[in-house]
Amino acid sequence: MMTDSKRRSGWKIASALLGGVLALSACSGGGEEKDAAAGTSKTSQAQIDEAAAKEVSKARIAISPKNGTTNASINNAAKVTVTDGTLSEVTMTTADGTAVAGTLAADGKSWKPDAQLERSTTYKISATAKDADGLEAHENASFTTVSPANSFIGNFTPEDGSTVGVGMPVSINFNKAITDRKAVQSKITVTSSSGQEVVGHWFNSQRLDFRPEQYWAEGSTVTMKLELDGVEGADGVYGVQQKTVTFKIGRNQVSTVDAASKIMTVTQDGKTIKTIPISAGSSENPTYNGQMVISEKFKETRMNGATVGFTDDDGKGEYDIKDVPHAMRLSTSGTFIHGNYWGPDSVFGSANTSHGCVGLNDVKGAGDAKQPAAWFYNSSIIGDVVIVKNSKDTTIKPDNGLNGWNMDWAQWKAGSAV
User: Fold this and answer.
1) Helix (H/G/I), strand (E/B), else coil: 282
2) Active site residue 326
3) 181-206 pLDDT, tens per residue?
4) Which domains does the chain have, with CATH numbers?
5) Residue 43's CB: how many other CB atoms inside 10 A?
6) Which residues contact 8 (CB under 8 A, 6 or more apart)?
């Protein structure tokens, strides 16, 4: 005879065994088996999956860049697309919640931001789409755009939409050293409506100029395309620019300064339109020889000798003229062609007296349009050529200003990376 304690123990064992049998019955068996307690048909896993699938949208959303991307492009990276459905809502914000405007395509298949993104910024995109049955799909992603430290830009001249002289090269100065010159140059194209061959030349790791063999054809249109977005110019440093620049070539004006005769001859389209007496660099400070391009124009500007190495024993500039009239830059090192009101009229055409610049007779204040310097200033545009000959100095270096014309065509082409 069992005691109460043994009886209770036996019931516990039986209950456990029974529970195991019931649990085993509930988790096994075919779809057509009957539940012993309920007497109903059981549902197969395939049927469950099929039913669940009917509740999932067929729309498939793709967001680029991929979630977690760093160094993303600020131009083309951000985009949302969908297949087997249409986008119903897309929001893009910065990390602090600032909304980014964007446009949904008319067919509802894609979305992109309206403007260039900011560098070093984290963006979040949330997208919703619906399939033909109205079922919604959702997708989210976050990415960070390339930082200034990991990107480069090229500052270029001339400006988009400008009209320039026949000597104006396309000059690009990169803000970081470029080690993969071929990769960068291959994504920059410069063409002319004249059909002239245009070739790039690297002066150093940060400067790339483009020009044809001869001066640009007057009246032509030059187009530069920068497709540098995402181009790796140096290890871990990517381009961010994507733009097209066009500029017009004006009339063909070339002025020749003869330092020996002290006369400048101005021609347009090969015909002489004016001769002007000048005063070039003295024998102690002669003017560079060579082909020089006007790169800047100032109705009045200050010229201090200390900025270009002309100092006295006290370290002060040998000259400091605060209002030089009608000044036009010919070199980076400080060569100008400009008006001169402080010298006597008698020096122009008879004596070379400057520190290396080319001086033309003028008045203080640049207010007399009849003065030779005023006429030349008003008749000149950025990109016009000024040639100096018969000076006692050397020929100007091709990279001293926009003066690559002082390099022959074979040398120029040798500096191309493509």
Assistant:
1) coil
2) no
3) 999 999 999 999 999 999 999 999 99
4) 60-146 (2.60.40.3780), 150-250 (2.60.40.3710), 253-402 (2.40.440.10)
5) 10
6) none
Per-residue confidence (pLDDT) for residue 274, from 0 to 100: 98
Residue 403 backbone dihedrals phi, psi, to 5 degrees: -115, 40
Contact 345, 351 (CB under 8 A): no
Judged against a pLDDT cut of 60, whether residue 417 lies above it is answered with: yes
Q: Computed over its alpha carbons, how large is the radius of gyration of the chain?
A: 38
CB-based burial label for 38 (10 Å; 0-12, 13-18, 19+): exposed
> Of 201, 326, 355, 357, which is the active-site residue?
357
**Helix, strand, or coil (residue 142):** strand
For the chain, the maximum distance between any two Cα atoms, rounded to a whole number of angstroms, is 146
- The pLDDT tens digits for 222-269 are 999 999 999 999 999 999 999 999 999 999 999 999 999 999 999 999
Is 338 a known active-site residue? yes
| Number of C-beta neighbours around residue 308 at 10 A | 17
Among 270, 266, 362, smallest CA distance to 323 is for 362
The full DSSP string for 81-101 is EEESSEEEEEEEEETT--B--
Classified as helix, coil or strand, 306 is helix
> Which residue pairs, CB below 8 angstroms and at least 24 apart, start in 175-180?
175/206, 176/152, 176/206, 176/233, 176/234, 176/237, 177/205, 177/206, 177/234, 178/152, 178/205, 178/206, 178/208, 178/233, 178/234, 179/205, 179/233, 179/234, 179/235, 180/232, 180/233, 180/234
Q: Yes or no: say if 264 and 248 are a contact pair by the CB < 8 Å rule.
A: no
- Strands 253-258 and 232-234 turn out to be unpaired
Q: Which of 201, 326, 338, 355 is catalytic?
A: 338
